[in-house]
Amino acid sequence: MTAPAGPTRPAPAPPAGPPRPSTAAPAAASAAVDKRLKLVEATMRRHGFRGNALIETLHTAQEAYGFLDDDLLRLVARTLKLPLSKVYGVATFYNLFTLKPAGKHACVVCLGTACYIKGSGRLMDTLHKELGLKAGGTTANGHLSLLTARCFGSCAMAPAAVIDGEISGKIVPDALVARLRKLAEDAS
Amino acid sequence: MTPEELDRTQERELADDAKYEHQVHVCVGTACVALGSATVAKNLEAEIKASGRDGKVKVRCVGCPGLCALGPLVEVEAKDKPEDEPATLYQYVKPEDAREIAESIGGAPASRLQADTRQPFFTRQTKIVLENCGRIDPERIEDYIAAGGYRALEKALFEMQPQEVIDEISKSGLRGRGGAGFPTGLKWATVAKSNSPAVTRVPDDILARKFVICNGDEGDPGAFMDRSTMEGDPFRIIEGMVVAGYAVGAGKGYVYVRAEYPLAVKRLRSAIRQAQRSGMLGATIMGSGFNFDIDVRLGAGAFVCGEETSLIASIEGGRGTPRPRPPFPAESGLWGCPTLINNVETLANIAPIISRGAAWFAGIGTEKSKGTKVFALTGQVNNTGLIEVPMGISLREIVFDIGGGLPEGRNFKAVQTGGPSGGCIPAQYLDMKVDYESLAQVGSIMGSGGMIVMDDQTDMVEIARFFMEFCMEESCGKCVPCRVGTAQMHGLLTRISEGKATQAHLDTLTELCDMVRRTSLCGLGQSAPNPVLSTLRYFKSEYEDKLVKDGQNER
Fold first, then answer.
1. How far is B36 from chain A (nearest CA, A)?
2. Of A52, A117, A153, the CB nearest to B316
3. In this complex, do A56 and B260 lie within 8 Å of one another by their Cβ atoms?
4. What value of ipTM does the predicted structure carry?
5. Backbone phi, psi, residue B43, to 5°
6. What are φ and ψ of residue B291, in 5° steps?
7. What pTM was computed for the model?
8. Rounded to an integer, what is the distance from CA B352 to the centroid of its chain?
9. What are residue B396's phi and psi, to 5 degrees?
10. Which of A96, A150, A169 sits opposite B300 (nearest CB)?
11. pLDDT tier at A112, thresholds 50, 70, 90
12. Distance between CA B526 and CA A102 in Å, rounded?
């Protein structure tokens, strides 16, 4: 695993305070004790605030916030009584967790074997040439992120991509470029 | 649900079905849903209702019937259809075709949309694992019960001792479908014999001291058998797990599923809830006194978590890194307790073996590989999709008969099995029987069931590089041979690919393959060289053609 690419490295874990899980709020997001935070806390509560709920908690957190920022990781560490190093380790180990905010729209291109044989590698080259996007990149205006995955298990539709959560198959490069260009320019 | 209630539910469901003259099955697997099959189902229902026939025609959303290449698929079956007659199948159905299909029901089929059900794709398969896929609504436990579900569990709980269940599985000859082919009965017996240690790391809210894990972390790119099984018939997996739990004396089970399979996760969760509500999971299942419950755990995009010790680490909430074996999980697994880990397809085979008997199962397949295997047939082949075939079938039958050959007159070059841990099998072995031993002999593995057909335009060095890149990125980094070795091999393969390598580089690559294979900690590293080794074995000239020749300057 490579070093994390966040703008700020998290500070060492704060000393674990008394466990007040249900009321714990992230330091920098005091104004945002919102629904999203409640979702994260509900997941932790369902698992009795045990350390083994870490991955489930991060899943909920990412779903709610879109990515895992430092404050969120600190909160999870404190609430589950885990060292921040462990939380950070898990968050960076698994490909699905991201520490960077993603663009408003996301296109995930499958690079599994079946898709690769049917040209998804060339598809990525085309996207790079036409939109200037590489895997993991986001357009300058923050509207569109390009991501890759290893197989959605939809090989019969190869080459496949998931655009904003919806899978499309048998992709034609030009059509995808046109569609993504529209999303990237979409200001709404 | 007691056995009597199970009888009553089944009778009621069958009687209810008998009221309908026609059954319409609409595939709602991932591939068909992506092509709009949910709308197709909605429109069909509306059309049938509008024509006042909703008491006569039943529309049912079902799991994947297999031929994803022709989706969305709709099947119309008449009640009085003879056993050996195939139902009418419609292909490429669009939402606006609903009226045409609805109007044809009871009359002549809508020939414009009709698929040929006499083709070998349908006639050459033997369905055990997938027998309910495409037949039942995966979100209704009653559908599963009507199809004979939970009869195996009833038999195991009320007519068999745990040891008898294990003996039955051993006698059936079932081997692990995750790839390695370990005898399932032997694994069960080991877990049953193992005692839990006095001190464990089990969280205090869990009373169980033995566990059953269903490995649904189907990470091989190009494989989607387990996804389709989980989406199409989740109850069968749950039933298999409960029978396994009873046999080995476990009290809790986990299904570990990739988060990349949202539909499978949703259906499994719904199936578990329904099973709990009907008393088929939880305390004293079917009134037998046996307690067993199941939770779903999500993966988070790490290929290595398909390895059993990594998977356990992940369920415990940590980084999914493997540890040396022994001790094997059968003796010391989840939280230090004896743990049975079986693949989705293995567990899906349990209920039919218990219901129909070991002898029936052992009658299918070859001497050492019994039963059937589900393959995800993809790549340059006409009929991409999911197939279930008896062990011992030849590769030629799979690719050219069932698969319908290669598109646009392309020529067959190789078929890749086993994903990043497997190898490429060239044309000269097309008549080889498909079983664990034969595949290993030619340098590949059965693997979990991905089967990718490659044509003569495929660059084999590039394929080897592709798989090595995958292994390099997915290496967890714990052991040096895998972490560094895969990166070095990838570098060498890239160099060869770009025409910048000499014979010395190729020699180093071969040497590294051997080293990484022998010294890596887990299966990921041990099998990472396989794609290189097998392409070197059969397509060496493609490597050599790319080398810088003597006298040429190394660029």
1. 11
2. A52
3. no
4. 0.88
5. -65, -40
6. -110, 135
7. 0.91
8. 16
9. -60, -45
10. A96
11. confident
12. 35
